[in-house]
Amino acid sequence: MNNPYATNSPGLEPESDFSMPNTPSVAQAANDLRAAAGEKIKDLSAQAANLKEKAIESASHFRDMTTEKATQFKEIANEQWGDTRIKAIELHQTAEDYIREHPTKCVLGALGVGFLIGLIVRR
User: Which of 14, 42, 99, 121 has the maximal Cβ count within 10 Å?
Assistant: First the structure.
């Protein structure tokens, strides 16, 4: 019977010990693979170093930007706090002046507000 999987190649017979003429040896193939892997590792190492450099540069840029923004926010907050403080002092002065000019109105108003608060709390 004719075997469809059989080949007429002389080097692939079981008796021929799987060696083919004019082909590289297994050791040579392994050395070629090692060399290729070494080159690939060098390429990947270079790429990793480049990515690390870019990440450090980006992190430094981000840190500088956030520090600058934080400083700006701090300055704005200090200005706002100063303005608010000045307005509070002016309001306090105005309230004192009004109370000195109209003491009767203020006392009666305070009594009325106290009475309303008492009614609300009692419920």
Answer: 99
